[in-house]
Each structure stands twice: as structure tokens, then as C-alpha cells.
Design a protein that fits this description.
The protein is an alpha+beta fold. The chain has a single domain, classed as Beta-grasp domain (Ubiquitin-like (UB roll)). The chain is built from two helices and five strands, in the order E-H-E-H-E-E-E. The protein has a five-stranded mixed beta sheet. A hairpin with a 2-residue loop joins strand 3 and strand 4.
Length: 94
Amino acid sequence: MAEVSIRFVGPWRLYLGVERVTLQAGSVEDALEQVEAAYGHGYHARLLKSGISEKRKIADESNVLLNRVHIRQLADHSLKDGDHLDIIPRFVGG
């Protein structure tokens, strides 16, 4: 298990009520499961308030970067101490 820092970018800060967290995880997928377990309920409640009843996972609505590289570009999703994950909503423009 590695200690990793997760940063929620843009509107995720408002939707989830948190900017950064640190957690122990062995892989990106493990870290994302922990994020969903901790913050998914609040996200779903916010969607329901907006009239969206479909269950959506935070990771499915996000671009996820490991040390500034999109995880789709990485063959290995294992984590090591000091890694950083950025979770960026797909609807953020630029």
C-alpha cells in the first residue's frame, strides 16, 4: 500500500465538499473505489437534487491523472508513496 494524495479539481470541490485527501492504496482503481465509498453518497444526493436519479460513479464522470499523466496512457496503475492523483470532471472546459 502506498500513501497517495488526491486532488479534486474544479467543480468536484463543490460537489464532493473536499479539495484534497490522502489515503492508502495499492492501485489507481483501489484509490478510486475508496473515493467512491467516501464521497459517492454526497455526489448522488446532489444529482438527485438536480433531478438525476441514475447512479453514476465519480471516476466514470472524470478524467483521472496519475502524476499528471492520464491513466489511459499508462499500462501500470500501481501506486507508490508520494504519487498524486488529480480527479477532473469531464465537463470542465479550457
